[in-house]
């Protein structure tokens, strides 16, 4: 079905069939909840959140077709037809020869890097997502972010800010030697850099640099369909191609991928590794059995595999993708009108507020993103996430000194097919009040933190 394109309003291309009640809280209650959570929004109970924009991961609504498919779920330990349908759908969209199911993206990462990486290796990426970086570093390897300079400048308008700096990649290979680079990754879209896409041209260029050295290219494909739609809209020669054709072309340049099906799999849980390498696939399956499960379920229930099989096809629908990008654009453009500095242009799955520019009175050492995030919750019960120095600040293990992240962002992630436009309008109203009061927002200090992935559990206090 194609919706009449001549109308300006991009509608949600679905109706609501089942609802989940939201409950309002008072400001006094939210003040209390924030204190109890030590100003870390990961520690707030979700029933105390009104609009949850913490993540677009596993938080979307499934379609009636997906719910119907759940009932087909076959829970056999080995050789389930649900796995066959899952495998067929993944192969149909991605084209890889071997498909290894995992319970989510990071499990795919852990297995992939366990098999491919050793201590001292270097893995380049446009920008590693936090779990990707953590899994590489856990192996004793080094995660290098090589996004183009435009990708680090929130104000800069560029159609493909997720692109990798190909010259930097070339230099890295020359500097450390190809033997130390077991694989190169491209995150599509580039989540930590603002949900920005990678162009097909860039994928081809990266491949061209890697090929003579025999370095495999892997996609972190969590938001592959959104990336493909950006290519269709913005890159010459792709306007008349279907999303599936674009995805297949992207994947044709890769040797494999890791995937979190909680994003563009339109499922609540799941992931996989795709690869064309038979030997690697076997090693990965051996490891899979150790922690995830037998290779025909990989830590998932048969019904989850069914939901992903359907989700991977639905996510390719252009009506869906048009609405998806329109929602982010609507939120982004109106935040700009209020005066918010945001990462431009709006990405696919989220809007990122540049908290460093918004709150110049809060130094990076006092985590302006964390402060803004807490304020949006306090003001209107909106949950967002800091993607700045709390998440990516580097602490020198010897001196304890902290190097801040390059950007101090607050992400407003949009769960798929979940909120209506009035929810977004409410977010904007709250954001307007927070903006008016921005000069009174105070910085934060960390009072307690774990050794890695500290943003999930660290505790804070306003200064
Ligand atoms: N890669 C990217 C680009 C991601 O955004 C995520 C998760 C992962 C890998 C890991 O996948 O969660 O299934 O284990 N991102 C979520 C987020 C958590 O909020 O952006 P996972």
Kindly describe this structure.
The structure is a single chain. The chain is an alpha/beta fold and 463 residues long. It folds into 2 domains: 27-56 and 318-462, Aspartate Aminotransferase, domain 1; 64-314, Type I PLP-dependent aspartate aminotransferase-like (Major domain) (Aspartate Aminotransferase, domain 2). The chain has helices spanning 27-36, 64-72, 81-94, 105-116, 130-138, 166-176, 200-210, 224-234, 243-252, 278-291, 302-314, 318-338, 355-358, 368-380, 389-392, 421-436, and strands at 51-52, 98-102, 122-125, 142-145, 184-187, 217-220, 256-260, 271-275, 350-354, 382-383, 385-387, 394-395, 402-403, 409-413, 444-448, 459-462. It has a 5-stranded mixed beta sheet, with helices on both faces. α12 (318-338) runs parallel beside α16. The structure holds ligand F0G.
Topology overview:
Blueprint: H1 27-36, E1 51-52, H2 64-72, H3 81-94, E2 98-102, H4 105-116, E3 122-125, H5 130-138, E4 142-145, H6 166-176, E5 184-187, H7 200-210, E6 217-220, H8 224-234, H9 243-252, E7 256-260, E8 271-275, H10 278-291, H11 302-314, H12 318-338, E9 350-354, H13 355-358, H14 368-380, E10 382-383, E11 385-387, H15 389-392, E12 394-395, E13 402-403, E14 409-413, H16 421-436, E15 444-448, E16 459-462
Parallel strand pairs: 1-10, 3-4, 5-6, 6-7
Antiparallel strand pairs: 2-8, 7-8, 9-14, 11-14, 12-13, 15-16
Bound molecules: ligand F0G.
